[in-house]
Design a protein that fits this description.
globular, Immunoglobulin-like, mainly beta, 7-stranded mixed sheet, single chain, 6-stranded mixed sheet, 3 helices, about 475 residues
């Protein structure tokens, strides 16, 4: 495949520098966490310079946690208490949201709703018990589209109490960047064209913070591959050519092991998938991993390249990897309360009667409401339920665009899509809705407080698609 010129607007630059990246052929590992004086993990958000695309291109000025993109992989074991001593070294306020984790509302990281924003130079200590094992992530919830778009995101891994029988446990953090030809982050955040369409799509995709031409593997290995979509708008659909991955967890929660639907692992912004991958190739072989979500823009993300070492085992293990269930509260579907959320707006769509789209927004509504920025806390909650209730929530996507809908605080079970029952028991924290699709979920409102419900295409969130669920 012939690579396009680097950083051409609207085109991906992942292959542009691959031929000259001999020194970047190995998959970069995200930096580890740093301990603070009191035993907490020290986490600082601030400006940094990193080599996103490699030489001969210059370094890129980013906003980063602990100076790296993605931020350090934070690792604990299920049942541990996480303590994070956070410092804001940005020139604007921020917070940290622990995406997918069941935490007290005061630790959820939504400015003015869960906590006061952390001002420039300010500090805040987050502390919570890790109830669930799995793959989660963290990011700001202030000026989200820009702060995430400039690099503030990282993966959080909660290990199971007992080891999982794999040879290696790898994190692949997928990020999407809009860069200029000088490898600088494009400053055009919040453009109405992005906000009213698919969101701010980039022209460069990185894997663990770099363009990765090849991932070295060994024949006969069994990998646990933790995929996390840290992008602000891009949906990925990954094909592992020549291989047969098994999905073993989604959004951190175990699922019955199964082949991905359509042989593609589809991840909307904010979603994660844990794969069990048996490396069945032979020494010296090479297999591409491609993103084919947009068929006319299919590209190679990276390649699995088999070394010359003797195989770890001669044939794949016949022992399935079945993860232990997390201790989620049981659903009472018979006694559940029902709430529906209708998504309207966007290009080729409409807002409810009496509302008009302007270049400043809003472009989207949830049940006819459209708070801008993070102002959902300023009005009444969209939905109020009692603590301990089971909630059946129906999403109706009455728009021409994809929406990954994220509910803070409560993992939910997917019940139906377009009226058809889910083919398997699947618990998630973010559900990807196709245009004109209807999805029904259910969850237990176990923790009191005001919780965010929003689209994780971050421009959609900031231009109207955000609301509050109150648990009283």
């Amino acid at each position: 495949m012939t690579a396009p010129p680097p950083f051409r607007p609207g085109r991906r630059a992942v292959l542009a520098a691959a031929a000259g990246l001999a020194g970047a052929a190995l998959l970069p590992r995200a930096a580890g966490a740093v301990a603070a004086a009191d035993g907490a993990v020290a986490l600082t958000a601030g400006p940094a310079r990193v080599s996103l695309v490699g030489p001969p291109h210059p370094q890129t000025t980013v906003w980063a946690y602990n100076g790296t993109v993605p931020g350090p992989v934070l690792r604990w074991r299920q049942g541990d208490t996480a303590r994070i001593a956070f410092t804001n070294a940005l020139a604007e306020e921020t917070t940290v949201h622990w995406h997918g984790l069941r935490v007290p509302v005061a630790m959820d990281g939504v400015p003015h709703l869960s906590q006061p924003p952390v001002p420039p130079g300010g500090r805040f200590t987050y502390a919570f018990t890790l109830k669930d094992a799995g793959t989660f992530w963290y990011h700001p919830h202030a000026n989200s589209a820009q702060q995430v778009g400039r690099g503030l995101a990282g993966v959080l891994v909660v290990k199971e109490r007992e080891p999982v029988p794999v040879d290696r446990d790898l994190v692949w953090a997928l990020s999407d960047w809009r860069l200029t030809r000088e490898a600088a982050v494009d400053d055009g955040f919040g453009h109405p064209m992005d906000a009213s369409h698919a969101g701010r799509l980039g022209n460069t995709v990185t894997l663990n913070g770099a363009i990765v031409d090849a991932v070295p593997v060994r024949a006969g290995e069994r990998l646990r591959l933790r995929l996390a979509n840290l992008a602000g708008a891009r949906v990925f659909a990954l094909e592992f050519r020549g291989h047969a991955p098994q999905v073993i967890a989604l959004d951190g929660h175990p699922v019955p092991p199964h082949a991905p639907d359509g042989d593609r692992v589809v991840l909307g912004p904010g979603q994660r998938a844990d794969l069990m991958l048996d490396l069945t190739g032979a020494p010296g072989e090479r297999f591409d991993v491609v993103d084919s979500f947009h068929p006319r823009q299919t590209y190679r993300l990276t390649s699995l390249v088999y070394g010359s070492d003797a195989p770890v085992r001669r044939s794949p293990s016949d022992t399935p990897v079945v993860l232990p269930a997390n201790p989620l509260p049981p659903l009472d579907l018979a006694g559940a309360v029902r709430h529906d959320v209708v998504i309207e707006g966007g290009a080729m769509g409409r807002l409810p009667d009496g509302m008009a789209m302007t270049p400043a927004g809003p472009f989207w509504t949830l049940n006819g409401t459209a708070p801008m920025g993070h102002a959902a806390h300023a009005g009444p909650p969209l939905i109020t339920v009692k603590r301990g209730q089971t909630v059946r929530m129906g999403f109706v996507n009455d728009t021409a665009w994809w929406h990954p809908m994220h509910l803070h605080g409560f993992p939910f079970r997917i019940l139906t899509r377009n009226g058809a029952p889910s083919p398997r028991e699947e618990w998630r924290d973010t559900v990807l809705l196709a245009p004109r699709e209807a999805v029904e979920i259910a969850f237990v409102a176990e923790e009191p407080g005001d919780w965010m419900l929003h689209c994780h295409v971050l421009d959609h969130q900031e231009f109207g698609m955000m609301a509050v669920l109150r648990v009283a």
